[in-house]
Amino acid sequence: MRELLGRFSRDRAALLGLCIIGPLVLAAIFAQILAPYPNDVIDFHLERRLLPPSADALLGTDRMGSDILSRLLFGARTTLMLAGVTVGLALLIGVPVGLVAGYYDNRMSEALMRIAEIFLAVPQIVLAIAIAQTLGPSIKNAILALTLTYWPFWARLVYAETRSMRNEVFVESAVALGASPWRVIVLHILPAIASPIIVRTSIGMGATILTAATLGFLGLGPPPTAPEWGRMIAESREHLPEAWWYALAPGVAIFLTVLGFNLVGDGLRDILDPRLRRGP
C-alpha cells in the first residue's frame, strides 16, 4: 500500500484529478453550509432574475432569480449521488454476472453473456434515453435507466478477466486442494481482478456523470425544481448569448468533474496494472 501511494503521489495527472474530485465531494457534502443562499435554490425571485456575476451573486442568477453558485453546489450533490448509486448498482449486477459467466462453461454462462451483449449492441446513451423516456422523468428512473445500460460493461470486463485467471496456477492449486467453486471465485479470482474493476469504476463515474447530465438536459432526469447541472444548461439556452454565465457555470462543472474522474482512473490504471507501471 505504501508503494502504491508513493506511485500515485508521483503521478501529476492523477493528483490533479484528485484535487478536482476532493473539493467537489466536500462541496457536495457541505452544500448547505457553503451555498450563499441555501434556502432559495427552488424559489422564484423575479427581481433578481438573470443578474450577471457580482459580489452578491458570484456566478450570477438564473431565470428564476436563484443564485447559480448555490444551485451549482446542490447540483453537485444530486449529480454525485446519482452517479454513485448508478455505478454501485451496476457493480452489484455486473461483477457477479461476469464472475459466474467467466468461471463456468455451461448454458447459463452463455445466456448471461448473450444478454449482456444485447445491451451492448445498442449505443448506451440511446438506450438510456429510451428507458428514461418510457419510465418518465425522476431521479429513481434516471438511476434505473443508467444502471440497466451500464452493468454490461462491468460484466464484460469481469468475464474477460475471469477467463484469463481461471487457468492460473494459484486457481488450479485451490481447486486441487478441494476448494469449492464459490470459494475459488470469491477468495482467489475476485481479489486478483480487483485492479481493473477499480480503474473501470473510476472512469465509469465520469461517463455516468456525463450521461446523467445528458438525461437532465433532455428533461429525463430529476424534476424541474431539483438543481441539476444538465437541466441548468438546458434552461440557459433561451437566454444565450446575453446571459452567458447561466450556461458557463454548470458546463465547466461537468467538464472538470468528468476530467477529474478520468485522470484518477488513468492514474490508478498506471499504478495497479503491472504491465503499465512506470519506473519506481
Descriptive overview:
InterPro entries: BP-dependent_transpt_permease (IPR050366), MetI-like (IPR000515), MetI-like_sf (IPR035906), OppC_N (IPR025966). Keywords: Cell membrane, Membrane, Peptide transport, Protein transport, Transmembrane, Transmembrane helix, Transport. Its main location: membrane. The protein has 280 residues and is mostly helical. The protein has one domain: MetI-like (MetI-like fold), CATH 1.10.3720.10. The protein is 72% helix and 0% strand. The protein contains 12 helices and no strands. The longest helix is centred in the first third of the chain and has 36 residues. 39% of the residues are buried.
Shape: elongated
Assign the CATH superfamily. MetI-like
Q: Describe the largest sheet.
A: none
Q: Can you count the beta strands?
A: 0
User: What's the order of the H and E elements?
Assistant: HHHHHHHHHHHH
The helix content is over 70%
CATH class categorisation:
Mainly Alpha
Mean pLDDT: 86
The appropriate CATH architecture is Orthogonal Bundle
Number of domains: 1
Q: What name is given to the CATH topology?
A: MetI-like fold
Number of helices: 12
Note the gap between the termini.
14 Å
Global structural class: mainly alpha
Beta-strand proportion: under 5%
Give the uncertain stretches in residue-range form: 276-280
- CA radius of gyration is 22 Å
